[in-house]
């Protein structure tokens, strides 16, 4: 299988790592030859196998290792876990570093990992943990972060340790199998059925494909599943015992981890919350406990499952913000203060500038309310006539531009002074002063005339004044009104002062209208002067939005924001960043997922037709979808019968049936239904967290039907049922084998081969 | 009515005297409520005598019904049909244009429509009274609930004009009342005449609610939940045979599912048969649909059945609301791909929509032998006005970057016609054939992705060549077909049946609703603003101002009482679960849970009418919250009564007196918002200025 050879390399690789020295090698010596292929790969988290050995030398210092300890308790007694894990490792790690090309979203995540390597700040709407984990693996592999990840399919250069970049997702994807097995056992499901569950997860092509590249889902799914596992153990164990404490802690930790990989991890957390609430609710009935005991229990649960996860979440962001201290490509999303806190950011450009705005200061003015953009002007003039036949002043354009540009610079000038020399005595501008603003590059002053603005004709046009020597003298005076003078004082200060500029002759305020200029204005945003805010004409307009342009000066020194300030800003930007819905060729709708109507082309090689396509195991997906219907049918049937006092299941069985519903069915719904209300572009891989629960539900159902059949005491029926399940499993395996070629993407395909794989005509494989 | 009321409300232990007393109070309270309602609602109902706010839409639509011209609206028809009916009956002739708000009516008979809507809106109050009275069995609770609705100035404002909200709220309140009655009678009087009456009433009302606006769906859900709960109770009654439960189920399935569906379809039937003249909504609908409209160019049109080479045709995109393939003299601007002539889709009929269909290899077509265009043929399309060919090449399209740009005037312009599910050799038929136009070299399909071009494209819709041949926007059909060599056949034959038109209207409405997205930079009202009464809406400006805003006292106290309710319910539930209730008297316990369950249903109504708005991406308005307010006000009545019952007698009277005092005083303060006030924005000492408790209120 080629794994032998690879394990050699891995040993060497891991030896090269600075961090783990003797401990690992020692373990390696201890290990039996059979398992040696697995061990070296367990790096940061996967001490599982190592600790399975008798070695007593493990040092339980951090959470992760402690989790493995309790994890180990099961594994030690359970060779099945080991077998399943090995199987998972083999499938997940097989030729992991191929193809040596950028595959699908590696484009994004790879880029972010590279930025981590270089400590460059970036902005993304997903939380950082997943990228941090991958980045740490990359760090140990000595990746320097210099690959550009320019486009899907482009080849990695020699110095990219692609195996190690893909290592964490593959490892976590493999760990999912034994964790699932244990979760099923935890719900008192038969060992064989639990094994079946593990196998099903191994045999799902979508989970396999997703685990082999630099993608977030494997981590997300593993964390939320382990959290659920430990939560179940937590709820089952005796109050305030060590086990209870440990399991609760781990559940909390894993929940916060899964939320920190992707915010959709929150759905699993909600599921956990519901399970805990249900547990508490049932416990209320027990009168042997006093009210105080119950209150204490609720409080401790709250600490373990709410307070600690929150702290960890904050810690992860702390690391994130500490690591990324250099300025980078997404700076302009953040406020100037934030940008100035980054090394090589704004502060280095403007370094040495005074804090106070004085006559002669060179400033940029940034619109602060909503879209970030800067007051901008360029040599082009407004067209003489607009498309709707209105005329313009034909003066130089003034716009709001969303990027940093030399044309964003303005000079503050007192109307009384002739030159810009600052002089010895600083002439500070304060609230109420009248000033002129001169555009730096064109040396023309900001002006407004009683001419309608290009796109919002109800407002007044703003321009830079060109003297055409016609009867339109410039009206260049602007009054500075500092809006937050209570806090910042009456003097105009950099970034801190929010400023409104009021045109003196017409009493209108400079305003960002939110509309874009047509082609002639390079699609930049319109700036206009609007009638004064203080006199809103209260006509019957529905919504009258008045966003004034507040200005802000770029800080001149590196600002030192506290973690909380940075965190609050980043967090709010992450939540409110609106996605634009784009039409992606491989995007799909939630309704298409349960029946696998559409896959995603991940990678494609033109000359061989070899390709990687995200597709689930269709046999499995259909079965799980039907298992949902079956479970619901059973549930309704039992409920109705019980209502009429027909008791089909004894208390214990009924409890188990309910538990399965509360964890698996509810888990599925919580992870699936929200997508119907989401307006982002969605992809098939968004479905995988929900899919896991469906697979578990299917396992429960297989066992449940078996239990029912066993009551008949007819061995023939039971035997037939077992045969049926086995043959179904074989079929699932067959489908898995068939589609393995698009999961690994190593096989040269002819057009016919591709067409043969196209089992549903909605699947869009690429071929030439 | 009152007799059974007595029977119902008399508890096991209460004497007849008690129930008589209660009955008396019930009648007094109801009369007071009705009196107050009539006085508050019909005061100044005819002022202002100009078009207010959305009257411009719904008045216009009423006129269109009266004139029978076809139009398109995102809401189902019942509300507008009722407005039109009331207008027609009171002498409005449908000629007033309702152009924009603040247009004077100048003698138009608008009064009938206003009074009709107000009457519907007024009926909400007694129905809410009935609902609460049935739910809790307490006149007092019902009276407070009614007071909360009566004195809410926002409710008055919204229900005084020609809008869809009065009928919507009316039907909704009626559904809830019916639901409560059915539930009440189910226990002892199932299958009596009265039970059937209320059941059918509920079914009718939910059908009406959802036929006014699709938000009626929420009340349907509420009724559904209540029904399930009733059935669950019936099923749990082991003294009754299982067949009894099945009858119950069947009766409800008929009255609450089947019957409403029939009614709903029936309303659409009326809608589609009344509107039989061509109007401004034609372009949204498919060619077949249009052929049923008198005055439309397709109505009774006769044109060749099949498309032959040399015919001049128009092509309509087959998606709902799709436009015609269009081109004009203007070129794509410099920065956008090649400078070729623009190709767009355009929803209106125009000579620039005409194309000449030619075989791929020759310019001339035999004058004698007519060749029909068949499935799989290679063709070229020449724009009739500019004599240029439809063309595509490997360039990025203006907006959808992945597609290829279409332009006209080059040689790379052969397209293959592929009929959907067509066999080789099938002819292309006018209107009925759906086909794809696939570019022969690029292997991409001509698509209208539904995106608007910027100004340079006159804001028509973009056309691109999409390599994804299964995209749902790639289908086209021939709409007009001019060709002299073929015999013209009457078009009427292909007209779709009622059912397919019914379905198509829904597809178009759905798309219209989804299209009501806020534009970039536009600010819409957000759901979090509603319960706290953050911002209102101007109904009328100028010197007669009307501002839709809830009575802040009522709205804010509503929230307080809701929080109190949730807390009380939670505590009671925990106590019950802990088994602390066993010591309580049975009667007291029963009363407590009756109130709490009543509150729970009302709370559910509130949640159902409020929460879904959070998930909606469309443009939202403040008035969307009013259905929820009714539930909240009823809940307040229930909760207030629950608390008052635990007080000593004298305190109870004081409390009730105080709350009515506060309600009427706040009403007196804020009533100008509903009945009109003059512009007073500049005088800081005016009465209205003092009432601006929140900065965000704009009056």
What's the structural blueprint in terms of helices and strands?
The complex is a heterodimer of chains A (768) and B (699).
Chain A: H1 3-16, H2 22-30, H3 48-52, H4 63-77, H5 79-93, H6 106-117, H7 129-140, H8 162-186, H9 191-202, H10 205-211, H11 217-236, H12 242-261, H13 265-284, H14 291-323, H15 336-340, H16 346-349, E1 362-364, E2 366-367, E3 373-381, E4 396-401, E5 409-413, E6 434-439, E7 446-452, E8 460-464, E9 478-482, H17 485-488, E10 499-503, E11 508-516, E12 525-531, E13 550-551, H18 563-576, E14 600-604, E15 611-614, H19 618-643, H20 651-672, H21 688-711, H22 715-744, H23 751-757
Antiparallel strand pairs in A: 1-5, 2-3, 3-4, 4-8, 4-12, 5-6, 6-9, 7-8, 8-12, 9-10, 10-11, 10-13, 11-12, 14-15
Chain B: H1 2-9, H2 16-42, H3 55-67, H4 78-89, H5 111-136, H6 139-150, H7 153-158, H8 165-189, H9 193-212, H10 216-236, H11 242-274, H12 287-290, E1 302-304, E2 312-317, E3 324-331, E4 341-346, E5 354-359, E6 378-383, E7 388-396, E8 404-408, E9 415-419, E10 435-439, E11 445-447, E12 461-462, E13 464-466, E14 475-482, E15 488-490, H13 498-514, E16 537-540, E17 546-548, H14 552-578, H15 586-610, H16 626-645, H17 649-675, H18 687-690
Antiparallel strand pairs in B: 1-15, 2-5, 2-14, 3-4, 4-12, 5-6, 6-7, 6-9, 7-8, 8-13, 9-10, 10-14, 11-13, 16-17
Helix pairs in contact in B: 1-2, 2-5, 2-6, 3-4, 4-5, 5-6, 5-8, 5-16, 6-16, 8-9, 8-10, 9-10, 9-11, 10-11, 10-15, 14-15, 14-16, 15-16
Pathway (chain A): Protein modification; protein glycosylation
Transmembrane segments (chain A): 163-185, 192-208, 214-232, 239-257, 263-281, 302-325, 619-640, 660-678, 684-702, 723-745
Subcellular location (chain A): Endoplasmic reticulum membrane
Provide a short characterization of the protein structure.
The complex is a heterodimer of chains A (768) and B (699). Chain A has 768 residues and is an alpha+beta fold. Chain A has helices at 3-16, 22-30, 48-52, 63-77, 79-93, 106-117, 129-140, 162-186, 191-202, 205-211, 217-236, 242-261, 265-284, 291-323, 336-340, 346-349, 485-488, 563-576, 618-643, 651-672, 688-711, 715-744, 751-757; strands at 362-364, 366-367, 373-381, 396-401, 409-413, 434-439, 446-452, 460-464, 478-482, 499-503, 508-516, 525-531, 550-551, 600-604, 611-614.
């Amino acid at each position: 299988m080629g794994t032998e050879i690879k394990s050699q390399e891995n040993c060497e690789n891991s030896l090269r790592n600075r961090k783990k020295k003797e401990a690992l090698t020692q373990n390696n010596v201890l290990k039996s030859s059979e398992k040696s292929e697995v061990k070296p790969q367990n790096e940061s988290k996967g001490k599982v196998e190592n600790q399975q050995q008798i070695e007593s030398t493990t040092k339980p210092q951090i959470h992760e290792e402690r989790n493995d300890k309790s994890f180990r308790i099961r594994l030690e007694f359970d060779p099945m876990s080991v077998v399943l894990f090995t199987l998972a490792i083999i499938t997940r790690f097989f030729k992991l570093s191929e193809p040596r090309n950028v595959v699908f979203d590696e484009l994004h995540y790879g880029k972010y990992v590279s930025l981590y390597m270089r400590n460059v700040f970036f902005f993304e709407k997903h939380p950082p943990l997943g990228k941090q984990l991958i980045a740490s693996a990359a760090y140990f592999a000595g990746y320097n972060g210099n690959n550009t990840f320019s486009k899907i399919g482009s080849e990695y250069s020699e110095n990219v340790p692609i195996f190690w970049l893909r290592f964490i997702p593959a490892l976590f994807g493999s760990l999912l199998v034994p964790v699932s097995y244990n979760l099923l056992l935890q719900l008192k499901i038969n060992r064989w059925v639990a094994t079946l569950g593990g196998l099903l997860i191994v045999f799902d092509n979508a989970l396999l494909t997703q685990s082999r590249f630099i993608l977030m889902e494997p981590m997300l799914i593993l964390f939320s599943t382990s959290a659920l596992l430990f939560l179940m153990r937590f709820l089952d164990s005796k109050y305030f015992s060590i086990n209870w404490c440990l399991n609760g802690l781990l559940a909390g930790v894993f929940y916060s981890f899964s939320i920190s990989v992707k915010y959709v991890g929150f759905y699993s957390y909600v599921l956990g919350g519901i399970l805990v609430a249900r547990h508490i609710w049932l416990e209320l009935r027990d009168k042997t406990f006093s009210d105080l005991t119950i209150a204490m229990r609720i409080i401790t649960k709250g600490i373990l499952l709410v307070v600690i996860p929150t702290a960890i979440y904050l810690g992860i962001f702390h690391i994130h913000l500490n690591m990324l201290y250099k300025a980078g490509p997404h700076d302009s999303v953040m406020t100037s203060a934030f940008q100035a806190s980054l090394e090589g950011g704004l502060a280095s450009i403007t370094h040495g500038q005074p804090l106070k705005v004085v006559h002669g200061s060179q400033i940029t003015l940034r619109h602060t309310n909503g879209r970030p953009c800067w007051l901008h002007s360029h040599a082009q003039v407004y067209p003489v006539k607009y498309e709707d036949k209105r005329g313009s002043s034909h003066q130089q354009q003034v716009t709001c531009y969303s990027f940093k540009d030399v044309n964003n610079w303005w000079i503050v000038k007192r109307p009384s002074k002739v030159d810009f020399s600052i002089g010895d005595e600083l002439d500070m501008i304060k609230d109420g002063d009248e000033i002129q603003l001169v555009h730096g590059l064109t040396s023309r002053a900001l002006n407004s005339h009683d001419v309608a603005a290009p796109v919002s004709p109800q407002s007044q046009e703003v321009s830079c004044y060109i003297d055409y020597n016609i009867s339109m003298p410039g009206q260049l005076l602007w009054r500075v009104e500092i809006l937050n003078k209570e806090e910042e004082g009456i003097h105009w200060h950099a970034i801190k002062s929010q400023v409104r500029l009021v045109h003196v002759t017409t009493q209108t305020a400079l305003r960002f209208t939110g509309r874009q200029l047509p082609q002639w204005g390079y699609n930049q945003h319109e700036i206009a002067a609007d009638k004064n805010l203080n006199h809103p004409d209260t006509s019957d307009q529905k919504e009258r939005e008045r966003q004034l342009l507040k200005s802000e000066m770029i800080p001149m020194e590196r600002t030192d924001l506290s973690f909380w300030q940075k965190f609050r800003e980043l967090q709010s930007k992450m939540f409110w960043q609106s996605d634009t819905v784009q039409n992606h060729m491989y995007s799909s709708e939630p309704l298409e997922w349960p029946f696998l109507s559409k896959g995603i082309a991940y990678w494609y090689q033109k000359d061989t037709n070899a390709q990687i396509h995200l597709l689930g195991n269709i046999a499995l997906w259909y079965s799980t979808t039907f298992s949902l219907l079956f479970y619901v049918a059973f549930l309704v049937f039992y409920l109705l019968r019980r209502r009429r006092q027909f008791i089909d299941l004894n208390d214990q069985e009924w409890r188990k049936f309910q538990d399965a519903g509360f964890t698996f069915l509810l888990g599925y719904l919580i992870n699936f239904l929200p997508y119907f209300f989401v307006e982002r572009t969605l992809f098939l891989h968004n479905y995988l967290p929900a899919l896991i629960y469906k697979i578990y539900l299917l396992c429960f159902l297989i066992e449940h039907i078996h239990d029912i059949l066993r009551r008949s005491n007819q061995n023939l029926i039971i035997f037939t049922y077992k045969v049926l399940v086995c043959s179904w499993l074989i079929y699932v395996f067959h489908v898995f084998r068939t589609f393995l070629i698009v999961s690994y993407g190593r096989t040269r395909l002819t057009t016919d081969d591709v067409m043969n794989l196209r089992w549903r005509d909605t699947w869009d494989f690429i071929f030439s | 009515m009152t007799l059974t009321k007595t029977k119902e409300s008399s508890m096991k232990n209460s004497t007849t005297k008690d129930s008589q007393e209660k009955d008396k109070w019930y009648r007094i309270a109801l009369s007071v409520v009705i009196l107050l309602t009539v006085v508050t609602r019909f005061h100044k109902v005819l002022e202002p005598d100009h078009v207010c706010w959305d009257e411009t839409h719904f008045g216009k639509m009423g006129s269109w019904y009266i004139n029978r011209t076809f139009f398109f609206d995102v809401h189902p028809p019942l509300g507008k049909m009722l407005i039109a009916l009331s207008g027609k009956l009171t002498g409005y002739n449908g000629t007033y244009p309702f152009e924009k708000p603040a247009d004077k009516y100048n003698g138009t008979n608008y009064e009938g429509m206003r009074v009709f809507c107000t009457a519907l809106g007024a009926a909400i109050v007694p129905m809410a009274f009935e609902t609460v009275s049935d739910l809790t069995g307490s006149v007092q609770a019902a009276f407070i609930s009614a007071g909360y609705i009566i004195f809410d100035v926002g409710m008055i404002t919204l229900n005084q004009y020609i809008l869809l909200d009065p009928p919507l709220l009316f039907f909704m309140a009626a559904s809830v009342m019916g639901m409560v009655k059915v539930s009440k009678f189910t226990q002892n009087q199932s299958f009596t005449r009265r039970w059937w009456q209320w059941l059918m009433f509920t079914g009718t009302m939910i059908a009406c609610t959802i036929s006014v606006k699709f938000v009626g769906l929420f009340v349907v859900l509420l009724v559904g939940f209540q029904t399930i709960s009733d059935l669950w109770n019936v099923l749990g009654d082991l003294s009754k045979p299982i067949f009894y439960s099945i009858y119950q189920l069947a009766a409800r399935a008929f009255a609450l599912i089947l019957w409403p569906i029939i009614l709903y379809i029936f309303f659409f039937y009326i809608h589609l048969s009344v509107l039989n003249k061509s109007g401004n909504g034609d372009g949204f609908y498919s060619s077949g649909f249009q052929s049923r409209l008198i005055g439309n160019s397709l109505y009774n049109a006769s044109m060749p059945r099949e498309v032959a080479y040399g015919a001049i045709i128009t092509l309509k995109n087959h998606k709902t609301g799709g436009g015609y393939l269009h081109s004009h003299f203007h070129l794509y601007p410099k920065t956008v791909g090649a400078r070729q002539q623009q190709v767009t889709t355009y929803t209106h009929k125009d000579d620039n929509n005409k194309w000449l269909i030619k075989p791929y290899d020759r310019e001339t077509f035999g004058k004698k032998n007519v060749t029909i265009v068949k499935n799989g043929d290679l063709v070229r399309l020449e724009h009739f006005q500019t004599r240029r060919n439809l063309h595509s090449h490997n360039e990025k399209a203006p907006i959808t970057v992945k597609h290829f740009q279409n332009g006209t005037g080059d040689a790379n312009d052969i397209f293959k016609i592929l009929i959907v599910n067509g066999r080789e050799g099938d002819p292309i038929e006018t209107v009925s054939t759906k086909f794809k136009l696939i570019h022969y070299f690029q292997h991409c399909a001509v698509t209208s992705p539904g995106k608007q071009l910027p100004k340079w494209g006159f804001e028509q819709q973009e056309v691109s060549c999409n390599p994804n041949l299964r995209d749902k926007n790639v289908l086209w059909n021939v709409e007009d077909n001019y060709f002299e060599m073929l015999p013209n056949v009457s078009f009427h034959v292909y007209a779709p049946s009622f059912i397919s038109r019914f379905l198509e209207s829904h597809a178009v409405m759905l798309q219209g609703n989804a299209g009501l997205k806020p534009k970039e930079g536009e600010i819409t009202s957000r759901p979090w603003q509603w319960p706290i009464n953050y911002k209102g809406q101007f109904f009328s400006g100028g010197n007669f101002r009307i501002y839709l805003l809830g009575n802040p006292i009522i709205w804010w106290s509503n929230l307080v009482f809701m929080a109190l309710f949730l807390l009380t319910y939670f505590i009671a539930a925990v106590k019950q679960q802990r088994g602390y209730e066993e010591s309580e008297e049975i009667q007291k316990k029963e009363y407590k849970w009756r109130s709490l369950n009543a509150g729970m249903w009302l709370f559910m109504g509130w949640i159902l009418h409020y929460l879904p708005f959070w998930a909606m991406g469309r443009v939202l308005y403040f008035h969307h919250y009013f259905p929820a307010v009714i539930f909240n006000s009823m809940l307040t009545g229930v909760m207030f009564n629950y608390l008052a019952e635990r007080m000593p007698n004298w305190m109870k009277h004081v409390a009730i007196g105080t709350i009515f005092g506060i309600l009427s005083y706040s009403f007196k303060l804020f009533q100008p918002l509903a009945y009109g006030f003059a512009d007073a924005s500049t005088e800081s000492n005016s009465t209205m200025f003092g009432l601006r408790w929140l900065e965000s209120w704009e009056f």
